């Protein structure tokens, strides 16, 4: 195995069992992610990609199989998750939300303040630090979620369709902001999406999943040099071919699950 | 662009401004109605009892009740009744609300506790605390404490039930966030469960407040020697209906005051809503 492997997932399976009826959400998932790699997992809805992420996030127990996140220090938490749209806690101010992970670890106040301010500034929310989330737009709320995860400074970041509920323009803006913060920290990221465009723009590697049972069916390297912009991805012919290839795959999967 | 309309010069801003003013006037009208309605009822009452439509012996005019209120106030008797009742309400309220919140949070957070305590709560809830008053008096005597316990008993249930509902209504994703970011049990309790349950919990407390007033009057009617309820009951038995009405109106006034107060508290401690 490679020296710089950050996440290794071995033969992970999760079955949901309910009243004589079981659904295999994911089956025999084996995947390794390198240090600093940005991996997007793409698949039709209901393919178990969120289940996989929740297992890595410690929110769900696998039925069988193991995973391991490489860590060389006790200081950092193993992982932090960026949740879908409602992950911001409404009774905490913007600032308190960003500081949430740090406060839960009871770090020194001064350090928490510095770290929080740094990431508030990064996502452009310094002015709004004392407000409650209800006063902010959906895009700004997702910025809080992203800042909270980065401020926690974990070994790896897990992102569960963080931009799915945003409008198209906001989505483009946040994707580029995410890339710019990420390029500074070079965190290892597993990012779940159903948007092919998003995957092509963000990731070093795309992992394609099939639906029910969710299995890895293909992996595609995205060789486009960084820093990338949406325009480059859209203008690149090779990317257009990739898009079609992935789309064909997804279409087949969707058709299959309908039968 | 200006448009000629019915011989007058209009522009869109002025039009909108006038619309806005009309809406303001309407809003003020609604507020006025809210203030007018109790005054209207009192006036109607006054006129009816003075003209003999209502029997003045049973329905003394509000003006006579007001003057009785001042007489009772200056004699110092009323003040004693009010302060005794307020003390009992406050003590009973706290004695019901605080355990209600704590037990409610524990029930909401821990399923085994919920399943164990739920049937007990369900079994006791339908019994009016007032029906238990004889037992409460046997246990705690006819002093202040038995009234306090009676009020606590009736305030407890709406608070407990709403607190449980409040905890169970917290969005699952917020629990996931707390877990993912490594919240300890105590942090989870303070930062997630309590504030998350607070809005629904406060509604239970509002209800509890109303029930406390209902209960105090009835509790003081049986086995008490002072308090607003005692005043109402003894005045009624002595056929001093003006004094009785003073008591009734005081209860209504305090109910209104407490509601306003709690709503103010709500706005202050739930600013994120």
UniProtKB/TrEMBL annotation, chain B:
Protein topology in the membrane: Multi-pass membrane protein
Domain ABC transmembrane type-1: 82-262
Biological process according to GO: transmembrane transport
Keywords attached to this entry: Cell membrane, Membrane, Transmembrane, Transmembrane helix, Transport
Similarity remark: Belongs to the binding-protein-dependent transport system permease family.
Claim: Oxidoreductase is one of the keywords in the record: no
Keyword Transport: yes
Primary location recorded for the protein, binned into one broad class: membrane
Name of the protein in its database record: ABC transporter permease
GO terms under cellular component: plasma membrane
Gene3D superfamilies: MetI-like
Compartments where found: Cell membrane
Membrane spanning residue stretches: 32-52, 89-110, 116-141, 148-168, 212-233, 245-265
InterPro entries given in the database record: MetI-like, MetI-like_sf
């Amino acid at each position: 195995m490679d020296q710089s492997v950050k996440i290794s997932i071995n033969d992970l399976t999760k079955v949901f069992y309910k009243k004589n009826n079981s659904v295999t959400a994911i089956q025999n998932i084996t995947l390794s992610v390198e240090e600093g790699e940005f991996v997007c997992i793409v698949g039709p809805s209901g393919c178990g990609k969120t289940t996989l992420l929740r297992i890595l996030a410690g929110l769900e127990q696998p039925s069988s199989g193991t995973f391991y996140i490489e860590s060389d220090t006790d200081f950092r938490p193993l992982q932090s998750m960026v949740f879908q749209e409602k992950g911001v806690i409404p009774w905490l101010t913007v600032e308190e939300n960003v500081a949430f992970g740090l406060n839960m670890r009871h770090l020194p106040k001064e350090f928490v303040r510095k770290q929080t301010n740094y990431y508030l500034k990064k996502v452009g929310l310094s002015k709004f630090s004392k407000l409650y989330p209800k006063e902010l737009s959906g895009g700004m709320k997702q910025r809080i979620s992203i800042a909270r995860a980065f401020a926690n400074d974990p070994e790896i970041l897990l992102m569960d369709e963080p931009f799915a509920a945003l409008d198209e323009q906001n989505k483009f803006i946040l994707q580029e902001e995410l890339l710019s913060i990420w390029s500074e920290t070079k965190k290892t990221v597993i990012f779940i999406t159903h948007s092919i465009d998003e995957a092509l723009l963000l990731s070093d590697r795309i992992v394609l999943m099939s639906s029910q049972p969710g299995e890895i069916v293909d992996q595609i390297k995205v060789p486009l040099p960084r820093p990338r912009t949406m325009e480059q991805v859209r203008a690149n012919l090779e990317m257009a071919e990739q898009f079609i290839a992935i789309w064909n795959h997804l279409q087949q999967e969707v058709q299959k699950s309908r039968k | 662009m200006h448009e000629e309309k019915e011989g007058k010069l209009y522009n869109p801003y002025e039009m909108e401004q006038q619309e806005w003013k009309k809406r303001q006037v309407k809003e003020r009208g609604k507020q006025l109605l809210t203030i007018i309605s109790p005054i209207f009822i009192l006036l109607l009452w006054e006129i009816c009892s003075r003209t003999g439509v209502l029997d003045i012996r049973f329905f003394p005019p509000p003006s006579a009740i007001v003057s009785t209120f001042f007489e009772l106030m200056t004699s110092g008797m009323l003040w004693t009744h009010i302060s005794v009742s307020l003390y009992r309400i406050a003590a009973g309220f706290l004695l019901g609300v605080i355990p209600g919140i704590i037990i409610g949070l524990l029930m909401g957070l821990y399923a085994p506790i919920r399943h164990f305590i739920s049937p007990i709560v369900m079994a006791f809830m339908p019994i009016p605390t007032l029906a238990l008053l004889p037992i409460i008096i046997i246990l705690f005597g006819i002093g202040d404490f038995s009234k306090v316990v009676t009020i606590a008993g009736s305030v407890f249930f709406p608070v407990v039930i709403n607190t449980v509902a409040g905890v169970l209504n917290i969005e699952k994703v917020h629990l996931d966030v707390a877990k993912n970011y490594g919240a300890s049990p105590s942090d989870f309790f303070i930062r997630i469960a309590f504030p998350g349950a607070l809005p629904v919990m406060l509604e239970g407390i509002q209800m509890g407040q109303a029930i406390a007033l209902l209960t105090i009057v009835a509790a003081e009617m049986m086995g008490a020697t002072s308090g607003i309820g005692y005043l109402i009951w003894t005045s009624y038995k002595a056929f001093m209906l003006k004094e009785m009405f003073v008591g009734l109106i005081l209860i209504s006034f305090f109910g209104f005051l407490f509601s306003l107060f709690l709503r103010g508290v709500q706005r202050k401690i739930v600013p994120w809503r």
